[in-house]
Amino acid sequence: MKMSVIAVRYSTGMRWFLMTRPSLAVNIAGIQMKNPVMPASGCFGFGEEYRDFIDLNALGAIVVKSVTLKPTPGNPPPRVCETPGGMLNAIGWQNPGLEVFVEKKMPFLRQYDTPVIVNMAGKTKQEYADLAGELDQVPGLAGLELNISCPNVEEGGVAFGVDPVLAAKVTAAVRERTSLPLLVKLSPNVTDIGVMAKAVEAAGADALSLINTLTGIAIDIERRRPVLSNVTGGLSGPAIKPVALHMVWKSAQLVKIPILGMGGILRAQDAIEFLLAGATAVQVGIGNFIKPGLMTEIIQGIEAYLAAHGFDDVNDLVGAAFKKE
Ligand SMILES: Cc1cc2nc3c(=O)[nH]c(=O)nc-3n(C[C@H](O)[C@H](O)[C@H](O)COP(=O)(O)O)c2cc1C
Questions:
Q1: What's the CA-to-centroid distance between 138 and ligand 1, angstroms?
Q2: Average per-residue pLDDT for the chain
Q3: What's the pTM value of the predicted model, to 2 decimals?
Q4: Distance 47 CA to ligand 1 centre (A)
Q5: Nearest one of 244, 249, 167 to 212, comparing CA atoms
């Protein structure tokens, strides 16, 4: 419970009141956050583009676009397309690479009193481990988010994120090279998310980010070809919210580590559903494209919900939909 002093002007003069406000603070694997709301990787760049639209100090954390060891150009266009209730993207891991991230992006991010989480991607276990080792040395980083929805070139293109053995191996390799809190972002393109969640927890993950995009295709009927140059893309937006909620719900009952939930969060109500399903924090993806100031509204909406329902602390909502009274 936080105390706030508010001033009310009466005709007889000013009066001061002490008000209690619910606490929004959460702790994810040692990362202390002012509130449970942050952008999802790839939907907020490195924060600079959003600074005129939203107070970066008001966010729970900033999760940046996937960073790779070397600069990556990404896929050729067209690489995004709107679909009912969402969008497909096949950006690839377009990013300036580790060196530019450290020298040009981190100085900007360090100005803010908000934990910075780097989402990291690679093509081999070694690449992931080396990247983690380098990032471990970067001052001002609060944590790493391991994006394992990537084709593993060593294992013939099988994505790390759809095989529990590979997922565990890459998690363990990264764990060995960093003492930073390690969030592992899981792919929903699996038969049983619980198996993946338990595998990476056992391999040393400190938290889970759930979910990345669902694989899909759109076809241009005039050209009679796929819309995206990459043919397949990742589906995100409200269309995937029920799937994401189910995966959070299921994983939350199988693992002890905290979960960051995402997928189609466009309103405070959506975020609250994720918390009730077992997420300790939430990430907002394409909602930032629709409304750049959306995360502020979501933070205020969660606070209003807590106050209206008599909760002192946002942590009391976590998993409340499945916990017995
Ligand atoms: C344009 C775009 C780019 C993305 N880039 C990344 C990325 O670089 N790394 C990553 O882990 N997830 C990436 N994602 C996935 C999002 O972080 C998030 O998991 C997904 O979009 C679901 O959330 P949403 O429905 O709120 O958008 C990207 C999503 C979109 C739409």
A1: 24
A2: 94
A3: 0.95
A4: 15
A5: 244
